[in-house]
Design a protein that fits this description.
The complex is a heterodimer.
Chain A: H1 13-22, E1 29-32, H2 36-44, E2 51-53, H3 61-71, E3 77-82, H4 83-88, H5 91-99, E4 104-110, E5 113-114, E6 120-121, H6 123-127, H7 131-137, E7 142-145, H8 149-161, E8 166-171, H9 185-196
Parallel strand pairs in A: 1-2, 1-3, 3-4, 4-8, 7-8
Antiparallel strand pairs in A: 5-6
Chain B: H1 16-26, E1 29-34, H2 41-48, E2 54-57, H3 61-73, E3 77-83, H4 84-89, H5 95-100, E4 104-109, H6 122-134, E5 138-142, H7 145-162, E6 165-170, H8 172-175
Parallel strand pairs in B: 1-2, 1-3, 3-4, 4-6, 5-6
Helix pairs in contact in B: 1-2, 1-7
Classes of the chains: A alpha/beta, B alpha/beta.
Protein name (chain B): Phosphonopyruvate decarboxylase
InterPro entries (chain B): THDP-binding, TPP_dependent_decarboxylase
Keywords (chain B): Decarboxylase, Lyase, Pyruvate
Chain lengths: ~200, ~180
């Protein structure tokens, strides 16, 4: 587990999303946040029914994932959220901590920019805000930066096998999303709910 | 009529908070998301005392829209309790209900509505119904105690039968203009 943002290896969101999804074996739910987070989730496996793609409502991937996690306590639920998105909804970290949502893991892709709108820097990047430290200070003890791909795998394994809530911070490069999610929100909801109706 | 009625909190004997709780049970509501409001305090206590209802206290009403969405995606029914000022906080997020056709019933206690004393509550209180409707929400008002339960029942039914955002606005005339320190 890595405590500071010094010496963090800069990774790639598309590659790590693929790595995460490929390792899920128990119908875990994955909620992809606005923009590149859900585009790369789509790219990782668009046939996977347990993926949900949030097209708008910036900042709500983690609270949506929390709602799913509360409704389905036996299923592990992941939210994939950008740093800029999480900044819009930092209070949700306290909400998640207060509810002690054991089966929830929030992955934060941190590139310090609003990539999809032209790569403008976030205020958090300018201020050197540490999002994982915020998560811990919000009451989420299991919050850590992934120093490299191997540590990312280890933190995901921990999130799959131990009580959360968990937060995994990942420093990523500035590559745009490689795919574009289809634009059919009704279909996302229907296929996701069908998948959620299957037992874990 | 009681000349000071406008200054009073809901009568402790008022039946409607318990009637709303009964409706939540009848409709098998399993998650209640809320930003606290004095007008809902008794209902909140009832929900907190119920092990079959998961109460999530939010940091902002936006989170509540997400929780309704997540609960529905996960197979549970949820409602959002908030004050009219909170409606302004979550307007953009109501897109979720429309694009995914997810039921989102909201029970809103009004401020800035009838005999309000705080000027800061007036603009949003006056706009609450208009902005909800501008975002496609089916809005019904309840301005008498006996109207509340049937209106809330209709709001919950409309949401879960027709898959859209719905709201009951509980008027300040019923709640009382001031409720501070009173249950």
């Amino acid at each position: 587990m890595t405590d500071t943002t010094d010496n963090l290896h800069v990774m790639n969101r598309a590659a790590l999303t693929k790595r995460l999804v490929a390792g899920l074996k128990n119908r875990e739910a994955v909620i992809g946040g606005i923009g590149n987070s859900n585009w790369d989730l789509w790219g990782a496996d668009k046939t996977r029914g347990e993926n949900f793609y949030m097209l708008g409502s910036m900042g709500l991937a983690a609270p949506i994932a929390m709602g799913v996690a509360l409704a389905q306590p036996k299923r592990r639920v992941f939210a994939l959220e950008g740093d800029g998105s999480l900044l819009m909804q930092l209070g949700c970290l306290s909400t998640i901590a207060a509810q002690a949502v054991k089966n929830l893991c929030v992955v934060v892709w941190d590139n310090g920019i609003y990539q999809i709108t032209g790569g403008q820097g976030t205020p958090a990047a300018a201020a050197r805000t540490d999002i994982v430290a915020i998560a811990r200070a919000s009451g989420i003890a299991n919050a850590a930066w992934a120093a490299d791909e191997a540590e990312f795998d280890a933190l995901v394994a921990k999130a799959l096998t131990t009580d959360g809530p968990h937060v995994i911070g990942v420093k990523i490069d500035q590559e745009p999303g490689r795919n574009q999610t289809d634009r059919d929100p009704i279909r996302f909801r229907e296929s996701f709910m069908r998948a959620m109706a299957l037992p874990v | 009529m009681d000349a000071d009625a406008i200054d009073k909190a809901p009568d402790a004997a008022a039946a409607w908070p318990d009637q709303i709780y009964g409706l939540l049970k009848k409709h098998d509501i399993r998650q209640v998301a809320l930003v606290p409001d004095a007008g809902h305090s008794r209902l909140i206590k009832r929900c907190l005392a119920d092990n079959e209802i998961q109460v999530t206290t939010l940091t902002t009403e936006e989170e509540g829209i997400a929780l309704l969405q997540g609960a529905w995606l996960g197979g549970q029914k949820a409602v959002l309790l908030m004050q009219s000022s909170g409606v302004g906080n979550c307007i953009n997020m109501l897109s979720l209900s429309h694009i995914h056709r997810c039921p989102m019933p909201m029970l809103v206690t009004m401020r800035g509505d009838f005999g309000e004393f705080n000027p800061a509550q007036i603009p949003m209180g006056n706009a609450t119904q208009a902005v909800l409707e501008a975002m496609g929400t089916l809005v019904k008002r309840a301005d008498t105690p006996e109207d509340i339960a049937p209106t809330v029942d209709a709001t919950i039914r409309l949401a879960f039968n027709t898959f859209r955002p719905t709201a009951t606005l509980i008027g300040q005339r019923v709640i009382g203009a001031k409720t501070f320190g009173k249950d």
